Amino acid sequence: MHLKNMKMLAAFLLAVLGGNAALSAADLKKILGSVEAEADEDRIELLLSEVKGKDISTALTYHYCTTAFILHPQPRP
C-alpha cells in the first residue's frame, strides 16, 4: 500500500465521519494541504467516483474505495 494513497483515504474518511457527506476534490486537497501531503488530482477523482452515491459504511463494507484506491496505485486509463 502506498503512503500517499493511505493519506488520501484517511483524509476522506475523517472528513466524511466528521460530517462532510458531500466531500469534493477541493475539500480533499485542502485537507491534504493542511498537513503538507501531496494531492494527486487523478487519485482524488478516482476515489470520489468510486464512492459517489454510496453510503460510507456500504462503501467500506464492499471495498469500493479500498480496492480501487489502495490496491491499484496507478490511475486507470
Automatic annotation (TrEMBL):
InterPro entries: P1/P2_N_sf, Ribosomal_P2
Domain of life per record: Eukaryota
GO biological processes: cytoplasmic translational elongation
The keyword Repeat is assigned to this record: no
GO CC annotations, alphabetized: cytosolic large ribosomal subunit
Signal peptide region: 1-21
Protein name: Uncharacterized protein
Organism: Kalanchoe fedtschenkoi (Lavender scallops)
